[in-house]
Task: structure prediction
Amino acid sequence: MKILVVDDQRGARRLLLQILRVLPDVELAEAKDIAEALEAMNASPPDLVLLDIRLSNEPGDRGGLDLLRRIRQKLPALPVVIVTASSEIDEIRQAMRLGARDYVLKDELSPELLLPIVEGLGERMALQHEVVRLRARVEEEWGLSAIVGSSRAMDRVRQLVTRVADSDATVLIRGETGTGKEMVARALHELSPRRAQPFVAINCSALPATLMESLIFGHERGAFTGADARKRGQFELARGGTVLLDEVAEMPLPLQAKLLRVLEDRRFRPLGAAAEIPLEARVLASTHADLESRMADGTLREDLFYRLNVIAIRVPALAERSVDIPELVHAFTATLPRKLSFAEDAMAWLMRRRWSGNVRELRNSLLRVSLLAEDDTVDAAALEALIGDDVRSSQGQATDVDRLAGLVLSLPDNVGNKLGALERAVLSRAMASTGGNKAAAARLLGLKPKAIERRWQKFGEEAADDADGEKDEPD
Result:
């Protein structure tokens, strides 16, 4: 804790410094006038200022009040304690109106009077710093910065989160298992005005229908056998915060009907209750299911889907954004007690792997590597031994290739050479995923480096020919 003592009297400064030296971990500075005080604050901002109102022998001098005004303009949160003579009562009142935290009369100055004031302010500042630190940690772990990845797909996710966070509209978050849907939901909460209120996640696939209804809406005593006390539901416990209905497509049909009514009326009734309770929380929903198929087979109410799907955010699978894997690896390994580095072939291996469990599988695999790897620098051989390659079966590979062939053939005719367009797109994606490293891109594609070089050069020449052709065309 750094304390600046500002007083024109050398004896008064010495007395204050002598009293304050008994405090642990304290750094003391002194100034005799406004100029020295401003210089000291510019050089190293203090945590507390002890300030005399009169900073000269002039009868009308009130330089301390002038300095207090400047402090409030430049450092509004900096606490100031007035230490002055009892004859300055009117000026003390003015200083308190200007924002001074407390005052001590020089006639009564003693360690027993001054130290509790300083210690109390120190504890309050420590608490404020802890709140700031925890808020920064929450933002890092759950805010927008927690959505890692610089790919276009993740940029779109962050843009949507930023645009709709302040809204009360229902958001439906879709994506495969392990892609980070709850991370997106928490970012929506942390960026919203509701962030000081609870965030409540309800797993709709984990409980039977009877228990789920009680969990969500609550129940009164005697509502059913075993209900020997009133229990508040998650909608009520969330207050004005955010409720996430995770895997909402697994909710039984009767409960879907009740949820639809709650979302429409913004009111719900606990089991066995006579009166309804207003729904104050914002509702988010997430799912990995194919909702269109669920509506077609009758296991998801169509009207509930449209009520939830006010705003839709799709979280891409890791296979769609392999370019983000180096960033994810860096973010995950930074939280591990053991610091690892990855050889070039190891990073290419991580980017080439299928990751059917998406980001969750990648994170858990890196934890396994950190615990079991023999060396701090990990290569591809070590990764394959510790994680195992997620290789598709030959039948699965054939199905994927056949599906891709169908997509290529369905491209519009104005694409021109469809095979050439596909090859150019795949090569460009491989180069982007490896940061322009042709050797790594070759490994990613299962080609030799010379083959990559030839194809890259061919596409560059074709692009130049196309540009020249456009210039030569008559208007």
